[in-house]
């Protein structure tokens, strides 16, 4: 494999991928307010973790670097779904957040109605991109199935519903794990597993375990980062439930389990997925 480090991989791929996202939306969305609202959140400074994991997995499974742009439609769809979820999550009827990534939330900048429609636009456009990609029919159908399953009412949307309807009740550790799996981990799992499938790699329980572990770890790291600012004081988070120290231990266990799982893989280069675990040391 040419690239062994996840950070280097992102540095080399992200400029072209970001250009792809902006060029496609600018060319496809003709309603100016809708386009501006969609691009506002899409370009709000996200790290593109999910699409980069998708592309890194595909690359690790044998897709040549120069062929990665053929997979941008699928990677872009994953990022559009993630961005839509953030817009809706910030709404007054949901998490009621006025800021996202250091700038005004979409509904504050454009209004609640336009923000809802921007999210709707991103979600539906995601599946349009998958449908019109150049990948084979079986790979496109798999991408639709996995993304819809993990991001919809059997995954992320279910977690969001639990999150807003259980705010007045302290969840058990098992319930909170399920919430985090659905709301955060499932979309990350979709990125990794779709990347492998689209590259022609037969999914294994080890790769799925790796994806599930880093997905949960991602939420724990986020909760730990936010634990001291007071905004999550009344929310269902692991630092609030079991304390920061125990949450850190749980995070380290997940990282260790993810490493052990991916090291058992024998069918593809493991360097990028192992290197991604450095994200949790930042």
UniProtKB/TrEMBL annotation:
Q: Which cofactor does it need?
A: Mg(2+)
Q: Which GO terms describe its biological process?
A: terpenoid biosynthetic process
List keywords of the entry alphabetically: Isoprene biosynthesis, Magnesium, Metal-binding, Transferase
Stored SUPFAM superfamilies: Terpenoid synthases
Q: Quickly give the catalysed reaction.
A: isopentenyl diphosphate + (2E)-geranyl diphosphate = (2E,6E)-farnesyl diphosphate + diphosphate
Q: Any keyword Glycoprotein?
A: no
Q: What class of enzyme is it?
A: transferase
**Enzyme nomenclature, EC number:** 2.5.1.10
Pfam families this protein is in? polyprenyl_synt (PF00348)
Q: Which domain of life is it from?
A: Bacteria
Please report which protein family the annotation says this sequence is part of.
Answer: Belongs to the FPP/GGPP synthase family.
Name assigned to this protein: Farnesyl diphosphate synthase
Q: Which organism is it from?
A: Companilactobacillus nantensis DSM 16982
């Amino acid at each position: 494999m040419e690239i062994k480090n996840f950070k280097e991989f992102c540095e080399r791929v992200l400029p072209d991928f970001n250009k792809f996202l902006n060029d496609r939306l600018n060319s496809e969305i003709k309603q100016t307010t809708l386009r501006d609202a969609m691009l506002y959140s899409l370009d709000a400074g996200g790290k593109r973790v999910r699409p980069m994991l998708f592309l890194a997995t595909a690359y690790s499974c044998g897709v040549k670097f120069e062929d990665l742009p053929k997979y941008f439609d699928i990677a872009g769809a994953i990022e559009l779904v993630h961005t839509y979820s953030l817009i809706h999550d910030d709404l007054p009827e949901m998490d009621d957040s006025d800021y996202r990534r250091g700038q005004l939330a979409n509904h504050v900048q454009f209004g609640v109605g336009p923000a809802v429609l921007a999210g709707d636009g991103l979600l539906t456009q995601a599946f349009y991109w998958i449908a019109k990609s150049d990948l084979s029919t079986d790979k496109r159908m798999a991408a639709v199935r996995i993304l819809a399953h993990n991001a919809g009412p059997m995954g992320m949307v279910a977690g969001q519903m639990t999150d807003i309807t259980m705010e007045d009740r302290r969840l058990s550790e098992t319930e909170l794990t399920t919430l985090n799996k659905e709301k955060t981990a499932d979309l990350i799992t979709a990125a990794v597993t779709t990347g492998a499938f689209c590259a022609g790699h037969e999914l294994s329980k080890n790769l799925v375990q790796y994806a599930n572990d880093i997905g949960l770890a991602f939420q724990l790291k986020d909760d730990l980062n936010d634990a001291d600012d007071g905004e999550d004081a009344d929310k269902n988070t692991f630092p609030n439930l079991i304390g920061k120290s125990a949450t850190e231990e749980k995070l380290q266990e997940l990282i260790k389990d993810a490493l052990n799982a991916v090291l058992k893989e024998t069918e593809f280069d493991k360097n990028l997925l192992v290197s991604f675990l450095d994200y949790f040391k930042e």
